Amino acid sequence: MVAPRKAAFAEESAEVEVLYANLEKLKGLTKKIQGSLNRLETSGKSVEEAISPIYGNTRRLQITNTNIDKIIDVIDRIREPLDQRDQEERIIRSDPRKVGIPDYISSLDRATRALAGLKISKLKSNVNAINELSSLLKFGAKQLEDVFRDILRQDTGTIEPLHYLTKNIPFPSITPENVSLLRLINTHVAASVAQTSQTTPQTYPTAKAYSEIRGDYIASSLRNLATASINTTRKQNADAVYRRGQSSISYYSDAIRQMAVTEYNNICPIFARDEWGKMCVATMRNALNEYGKTLRDLNTHIQQNIITDCYLAYEIVDIVSKLAMNLEKQTAELKQPLYDILKPIRETAKGSISRLLEDTRTRLQNMAVLPADAGSVPATTEIMTRLQTLVQFLEPLSSILTSIGDGNWLKGPTSPTSSYTPSIRSFDVGADGDKLFVNYSIDTIDYLLTALENRALLMMKTPGVRGVFLMNNIAIIERMIRSSDLSPLLTPTVIDKPLKKWKDKSKSYTSQWTDLAHQTLLDVQHTSRMRSSSGGAVDSSSVVKALSSKEKDAIKEKFKTFNTGFDDLVAKHKGYRMERETRQQFHNEIYRVIEPLYARFWERYHDIDKGKGKYVKYDKGQMSAIIASLA
């Protein structure tokens, strides 16, 4: 057993020996590796010491290279505007219409951006380039402005407005193609001015060009109508009264309205919305100035012929007021300039209201004679014709009378208390212009009849003649009211009351007939003599027989007095020149007074002269016939 054990131990011992041998080898190898590592570390340090300067230089070179690239990039950017200038100069120096306006504007935009780039660089070396590019842009802008003007002139040939008005043809406008080009150019120019201007510009070249060229076109086209408005107002006869529509001012004003509307429609697609009103006013300025000058000339003419031509002032007030209101729908900016233009004529129109009243009084005061036959005077017809003419201008007159104030026209234009400052009632929105005209008409008629009465008191001796005279003129007044446009305003309800006092004064004529009848045809009646015993009609022979001699003589005297007075009144009546209304009015009153009294008196006393006609000149039938002949 011992031998096997020894053999096993010997084998394991051999293996251990082998392991020890390998371990020794490993230790030797480890020492070699450690030595190699030490040598490698030493070599690495040497390499690091050698490479470190090279790496630093490389990093510096990389940074330098990056900086160089950036410098090159900046130089390229700096050179880009200069290169852009050279590229755009060829286009900008060309005719915009040949290049094409959109392309030309695009080139200007690029050149503008290039100039901005040069200015940002702030390099002294770019000063010349900046100046050159600025000059180039100015040249281009001038080119565009010239094209803008040329396009405008294509549609600005002077026209004759009357041709379009009379034939109801729309006024010519700028063609759509030209509108598109004008809008394109204007938009560019406006934007350029806004960018380059230090402050907000009041205007810019294309806007100024538009207002000048189109303004001159409108003003020159309207010039003939301005001249016609003056020429058609000139008087051939100094006493001729102006008639509505006689002057061409209505055509002139309508032409201004239509041309302003047409121009506004041209402006809207070309300019920005906030410029529409301002551009319309600027474009119409020359035309409105010429219009104002024409109205000032007409105002001078009206003032020199205020009585006959004040109606032109009312017509102008009406026309210009409506013109301003119509144009306000398009652009409110034109309303105030038109009202400013109208103001002098409106003041003249206001002053004329009192002047007409004063003329009524003065005209009659200067009347040297009155008709001997008590006929109406021409002045009455003239004054009523004046009212008939005034009512044709009721709308402007309502406005004028409202601004004067009810009754203030009686103060007169030169009265110290009359400065034509509108009263509170003048500003009342409910003030009735028609009512004011009615009041003015009544005052005019009252002025007329007062002046006629004053002249009659001086120049007509008897009340009867004065009564016929007044009634004749009242008849003319009433007739001319009924037969004209005054009738809806001066209705019987309105005019009867003011005329009643004058009709009462005209009764001085019929009072003669009444006095005669009362003095001669009224008698003291006794009941016992009035009727026969049978109760029938009055028996003249019985009545006469019952009279005493003294009573008979009194009755005879009454017949004689009546006959004389009646014949005298009839002769005078037939000698007067009476209007048909006057004659009928007086006939009715004479019939009402004379016929029943005479019939009663005749029935009682006609037997006083036994039918001889010595005292009883007329029977009842004859009296009725004579009275009927007075109608």
Automatic annotation (TrEMBL):
The protein, known as: Exocyst complex protein EXO70
A Gene Ontology term for the protein's cellular component: cellular bud neck
UniProtKB keywords: Exocytosis, Protein transport, Transport
Family of the protein in this entry: Belongs to the EXO70 family.
UniProt domain Exocyst complex subunit Exo70 C-terminal: residue ranges: 247-628
Annotated compartments: Bud; Bud neck
InterPro entries from the UniProt entry: Cullin_repeat-like_dom_sf (IPR016159), Exo70 (IPR004140), Exo70_C (IPR046364)
Purpose of the protein: Involved in the secretory pathway as part of the exocyst complex which tethers secretory vesicles to the sites of exocytosis. Also plays a role in the assembly of the exocyst.
Chief location of this protein within or outside the cell: other
